[in-house]
Amino acid sequence: MSLARGYAVTDNTAPLKPFSFERRAVGPDDIRIDILYSGICHSDLHQARDDWGGAQFPMVPGHEIIGRVVEVGANVTRLKVGDIAGVGCMVDSCRTCDACEHDLEQYCEQGPTWTYNSRERVSGELTQGGYSDHVVVEQRFVVKVSETLDLKAAAPLLCAGITTYSPLRHWKVGPGQKVGVIGLGGLGHMGVKFAKAMGATVVMITTSPEKGADAKRLGADDVLVSRDPAQMKAHANSFDFLLNTVPVGHDTNPYMSLLKRDSTMCMVGVITEMDPPLTGGNLIFGRKSVAGSGIGGMAETQEMLDFCAKHNIVSDVEVIDIKDVNEAWDRMQKNDVRYRFVIDMATLKNAA
Question: Could you tell me the CA-to-CA distances from 37 to 76, 146, 154, 193, 326 in Å, in that order?
């Protein structure tokens, strides 16, 4: 066992406070990582406030982890001491179901073991996340990160990155295609960068005209303001794929008119009900599809990180001291961040 320090919430109304706890000893297949940077995801706030139910306390959030390997078990072959490593949303799965056997651990039929607010499969102990000084994870669920990347800006790749990369790869986005990214936030700004690097013509679709300049800075070829009927009409029936990153329930019906026949809109941001509901005719007339996608498997996450190293893709981040994490959560709730907060975990040493 090893003593860990971090920040935790103790109930669904409590602020994040310093917290000490024990990590398991490094087993034969385990990797111990000293955490350098931990990204802040909006789901950290949702989990801590029990917005989705099932919250377990005390809870150390954080599933966008970048750190340095400091210890490996006897059976570890994928990384070595000194490597830069990443840990995302999962730290285990059943490994035997059809999904796991096809490297789709995020769809494990028994349910993945999440990086925090979950239970370890063997010990039953509560998992604790990346707002802490170190973590111990089985090697299958650790990825190697190139030191050519800006490591602080690479942390959100472990969630925001793979969440947007995976559907773009699955629906084979590439040259000659017109792709729309709906919503310019933590997920949307990564979707623009990936789709552009894959060779597509990228249109940022937003309700906020003032975001247009930033969308083009990120790589968008054009900006479509969805509240403008004339712009929507001009782009009707022209998109090969839509990546919808909006994180709350919203009206998806207008977006369906943008799709070509036999094309798909993929939802990656919202997990609650849609209001108003999707009208069936918007699917039937044009044989159009609405689909969903959740993060990515471990093999694909490694592929994504290698793609990022090749194309020098990272997130746009604001780095904070851990003592300011509650303020960052408040700002995130107000969408006051461009586009991800990342905690410099070196500041934990001086935190009260």
Answer: 23, 15, 9, 22, 17
Buried b (16+ CB within 10 A) or exposed e, 45-57: bebbbbeeeebee
Contact (CB, 8 A) for 258 and 195: no
- Distance CA(339)–CA(190), nearest Å, equals 9
Smallest CA-to-CA distance from 240 within 164, 171, 151 is with 171
* Backbone torsions φ then ψ of 152, nearest 5 degrees: -65, -35
Which whole-number Å values give the CA distances from 170 to 90, 209, 241, 329, in the listed order? 20, 30, 11, 32
Per-residue pLDDT tens over the stretch 292-339: 999 999 999 999 999 999 999 999 999 999 999 999 999 999 999 999
Q: Which helix (DSSP H) or strand (DSSP E) does residue 160 occupy?
A: helix 160-170
pLDDT 10s digits, 254-303: 999 999 999 999 999 999 999 999 999 999 999 999 999 999 999 999 99
**pLDDT tens, 85-114?**
999 999 999 999 999 999 999 999 999 999
The rounded distance, in Å, linking the Cα atoms of 241 and 264 is 5
pTM, full prediction: 0.97
* Sole residue written with tokens 């006897």: 74
Domains defined along the chain, listed by start:
2-159+316-350 (3.90.180.10), 161-292 (3.40.50.720)
d(CA 340, CA 157): 10
